[in-house]
Design a protein that fits this description.
The complex is a heterodimer. Helices cover 80% and strands 0% of the residues of chain A. Chain A is flat and about 70 Å long. Chain B has two domains: 179 residues, P-loop containing nucleotide triphosphate hydrolases (Rossmann fold, 3-Layer(aba) Sandwich), CATH 3.40.50.300; 70 residues, no CATH class. In chain B, strands 6-7-8-3-9-10 form a six-stranded mixed sheet, sandwiched between helices. In chain B, helix 4 packs parallel to helix 6. Chain B is globular and about 55 Å long. Classes of the chains: A mainly alpha, B alpha/beta. At the A-B interface, helix 7 and helix 8 of A face helix 3, helix 4 and helix 6 of B.
């Protein structure tokens, strides 16, 4: 009898057995995690429900009727947050990049610019955002130098000032992470300093720090809620007004949930992008 | 400079007017460490010059000074008679006249191979994209990499990447091609394909200055071999002569370490 013809695509008996084992393992671990999750959730639920004050807390924090009543106002406020966020993101991207590039300038002429940028990032990374909001929101209009602008406008400015300092540091780390030979290669092709920065260094730097930048974006997404301290009727302020009217805290929970929903897509996107980046790096690239 | 070096340098050729590159008394220190201690060197049109010497002898520093990536402490460098070491010259314009390939990290990983090759033509020489790309594709085709034109550099092997880097360097028709140990970071089996390309360019009459550890290659391709030692040109001569009968004891000792290897 001739033996089985050689076939390099059919898996061997050993491999088939391994695969069967892996399948059994997968089924088992899914089952275990399911059961463990259910038990864990049930335990927490029972503990919370059986606390002495649970009924009162449920009424004052999780009242569906109050939530429905507060919905229009809170969602209108959230729209204000989204507008502020949209403007602030563009402002932070511009100012952050500018600061980072200023700090990488070489040459004695640029010393004042470098020093200014460094002092700026030191100051605004140290200052609590809420203090910046108060100073900019109440202080700058007090100068009566500018035409009267809304609290929303100055709130946006305060956000841009603070977050640019963080983002510029992230950018700078990215710029410095680009291998110096890349700059040499670009310069030896005859590209000027500006061209080297624009065409070669910045695109690579942005790619390197995108996960960190996305994370800062997520952080800013919820910090836009702080502009309510200036009296802007955003989601947080709207929830506060509703709460004061009904003596019920449910609108805060509603606003919080909405902020989480707003952030979720970006959080998922960040995770996905980071994973993709890691996978790409593991393919192994020489350059 | 030692007496032997001066004799060797002076004995080769009288200063000629068709020198593409001329170095005069070039000095460079890093902090308290002198790396180049008075280099005189001349490279004529269509000449292939190999710089050899131990690590730290100043080969790479010499090339980096020529490309103005490092400033000089003293001396002058002329490119076709123009003093490019003069601080008043526009360094970017000078660099655009040279082609440079380094040991590694040459290609820009975020743009395609074709864009890498055409970048200098488009951004520095302001050539229209269509004609730059046509010429780049022709060059890539000649080195057998036309099918990789639309790929990103990290999809290419190290040898392919270096060949693209060389193509990128010659795409702008530089007056001199400077190669800084371009095969040192490659797997041994990939060295051949890169050296073959250099050999071809040399045969076509490209003026080349290369720092190299590939002695067999230097003997094969170089018209002249320059031995750097302790920051000076200790000995130079036609490749065959320098390898067969080095005059200096230190040259002999250096070459002995490569024999039989």
């Amino acid at each position: 009898m001739p033996t089985r013809p050689f076939d390099d695509t059919a898996p061997s008996a050993v491999e088939l057995e391994r695969r069967a084992y892996r399948r059994r393992q997968t089924t088992r671990s899914v089952a275990v995690s399911l059961v463990s999750t259910i038990v864990f959730a049930a335990l927490i639920w029972l503990t919370v429900v059986n606390t002495p004050g649970f009924e009162r807390v449920r009424q004052s924090f999780f009242d569906l009727d109050v939530a429905i009543a507060a919905w229009p106002r809170v969602i209108e406020g959230l729209w204000v947050n989204i507008q502020v966020l949209a403007v602030a993101v563009v402002g932070v991207a511009l100012l952050g990049t500018l600061l980072a590039v200023l700090r990488t300038l070489r040459g004695p002429v640029f010393f004042p610019l470098r020093a200014l940028a460094a002092a700026y990032t030191d100051l605004f990374r140290g200052l609590p955002l809420i203090i910046v909001l108060f100073l900019v929101g109440f202080g700058v209009p007090g100068l009566e130098l500018f035409p009267r602008n809304s609290a929303q406008f100055w709130g946006t400015i305060a956000l841009i000032l603070t977050y640019s300092a963080y983002v510029s540091e992230v950018f700078r780390a990215g710029i410095e992470a680009v291998h110096p030979s890349q700059r040499l290669a670009a310069r030896s092709l005859g590209l000027s300093h500006g061209q080297t920065m624009r065409i070669v260094v910045l695109p690579q730097a942005v790619r390197k720090v995108t996960p960190a930048l996305m994370n800062d974006f997520v952080a800013m997404q919820k910090d836009v809620g702080l502009i309510s301290v200036l009296g802007v009727v955003d989601a947080v302020r709207a929830a506060q007004i509703e709460t004061a009217q009904n003596f019920n805290f449910t609108p805060y929970v509603l606003a919080g949930l909405l902020f989480v929903l707003l952030a979720l897509p970006m959080i998922r996107l960040t995770d996905w992008y980071t994973a993709r980046l890691r996978a790409r790096e593991q393919i192994g690239s020489i350059v | 400079m030692t007496g032997g070096a001066r004799e060797a340098a002076a004995g080769i050729r009288p200063a000629s007017t068709d020198a593409v590159l001329r170095l005069q008394g070039v000095r460079k220190s890093f902090g308290a460490t002198p790396v180049l201690r008075g280099i005189d060197l001349e490279v004529r049109e269509h000449e292939v010059v190999a710089l050899i010497g131990a690590s730290g002898s100043g080969k790479s520093t010499l090339l980096r000074c020529v490309t103005l990536l490092e400033g000089l402490d003293d001396g002058q460098i002329f490119l076709r008679g123009d003093d490019i070491s003069d601080p008043r010259v526009d360094a970017d314009r000078v660099r655009a006249r040279m082609g440079v390939v380094f040991q590694q990290f040459n290609l820009f990983p975020h743009i395609r191979v074709l864009d890498n090759v055409t970048l200098a033509a488009r951004r520095v020489l302001r050539e229209p994209r269509a004609s730059a790309e046509a010429r780049a594709l022709e060059l890539l085709d000649r080195v057998g990499l036309a099918d990789k034109a639309r790929e990103y550099p990290d999809r290419l092997s190290g040898g392919q990447q270096q060949r693209v880097a060389i193509v990128r360097a010659v795409a702008t028709s530089p007056e001199v091609l400077l190669l800084d140990e371009i095969t040192s970071a490659l797997d041994p089996e990939l060295v051949g394909e890169v050296l073959d390309l250099v050999r071809e360019l040399a045969a076509e009459g490209t003026t080349i200055v290369m720092a190299t550890h590939e002695m067999a290659f230097a003997r094969d391709v170089a018209d002249r071999v320059v031995f750097l030692d302790g920051g000076v040109v200790l000995e130079q001569g036609p490749a065959a002569q320098l390898f067969a009968a080095p005059r200096e004891e230190r040259t002999r000792a250096f070459l002995a370490r490569y024999r039989g290897a």
